[in-house]
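User: Fold this one for me? It's Intein C-terminal splicing region.
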Amino acid sequence: MKILKSLAVSVFIFGTSMVQAQKNDLGAWYMYFGNNKISKKLNLHNEIQYRNFDAIGDLEQLLIRTGIGYDLTENNNNILLGYGFILSQPYLNGEKTENIEHRIFQQYITKQKFGRFNIQHRYRLEERFLEDDFRMRFRYLLGFNIPLNNKELTPKTFYASAYNEIFLHFDSPVFDRNRVYGALGYVINKNMRIEAGYMNQLQENKNRGQIQIGFYNNIPFTKN
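Assistant: Here's what I get for Intein C-terminal splicing region.
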């Protein structure tokens, strides 16, 4: 736990100092992800993301997602139907505004393993109900987790994490954004891990960085 606390504190201090130096050029996202088995095939997805324009206190977006998934094969090839509530507080002409989005999404996740490389492909379709608009979007994520001090992602293992995710609109312009992420993670036990890293987002020909701290909880709700 001391290693875990040191990792989180170090990244938080780094993020705070960077944000003070580059106001509104570097944000911070604090994220919780739950993926909990409710039967042999079914899982409950639950997620909260608290996104800031700076280290903390200047809310950019609060995102809450949940959904029910089903494994087509044992612990793999998961299809999921979900719902998301998104509260955004962007700046418009220097003034902070607020808007709410309701989102339905369908996704498919498949995992592969090559040596130490744990690979994930995620395909997600979103129906976005905005206050005065409706949009559809497709997302594809390719992610990697690579254990560093052990051969497998067993407890007390440090690992490198990376992903690239592209977002595409169903109307014009087709390209929405692209995210590139790199992080250092730590496996606390077989059901919990933490990651701290950096994500760069390209949107409307502008790059913006985000410090990210994520906690992952896979504690099953059933013994089966």
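One thing worth pointing out: The first strand starts at residue 26 and ends at 37.
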